[in-house]
């Protein structure tokens, strides 16, 4: 299965394409992106493995990540989707679909993440059987927290991820 094409007012959500990788790697090597990920800047290899993981979820689970394309420029500006990361965390919902998103820092503050996620979540509610999804957000990432809460995510269990404090949020599927 590949990602179904979705659209919002300003974005096209589509399957990753190989030509997206350079922009994807640039996003993950930017310290403005990674400041809420322990400050770790992804090298090309790590960005590649993340790119492949996110794309490959579709074949295994019937859900995954979409590349986010700005309509006016046809530019890859980020990604959002559902995935299974098998995170080393002691959470009762760890194996439910996790939601994640990343937007190129030059496009922050425009509401694009919320726009993409609203459309993506509607697709997930209609096509993913799980009763809940979850996400994790660094305590200092107030903007992502607000995005999650606007989508119906409620703070769940605080945890540690790779030795760093993390907040987790749960959302009930809308039927």
What does this structure look like?
The protein has 175 residues and is α+β, with helices and mostly antiparallel strands. The chain has one domain: Gcn5-related N-acetyltransferase (GNAT) (Aminopeptidase, 3-Layer(aba) Sandwich), CATH 3.40.630. 32% of the residues lie in helices and 29% in strands. The protein contains five helices and eight strands. The strands form two sheets. Strands 1-2-3-4-5 form a five-stranded antiparallel β-sheet, with helices on both faces. The protein has a three-stranded antiparallel β-sheet with strand order 6-8-7, covered by helices on one side. β3 and β4 form a beta hairpin. α1 packs across α3. The chain starts with 5 loop residues before the first strand and ends with a strand.
Q: How many alpha or pi helices?
A: 5
Range of strand content? 25-35%
Biggest sheet, in brief?
Answer: 5 strands, antiparallel
Task: Please name the fourth-level CATH homologous superfamily.
Answer: Gcn5-related N-acetyltransferase (GNAT)
Poorly predicted segments: none
CATH architecture: 3-Layer(aba) Sandwich
Radius of gyration: 15 Å
Number of strands: 8
Arithmetic mean of pLDDT: 94
Total domain modules: 1
Estimate the global geometry from the Cα principal axes. globular
Secondary-structure content class: alpha+beta
Order of helices and strands: EEHHHEEEHEHEE
Task: Tag the structure with descriptive keywords.
175 residues, alpha+beta, Aminopeptidase, 5-stranded antiparallel sheet, 32% helix, 29% strand
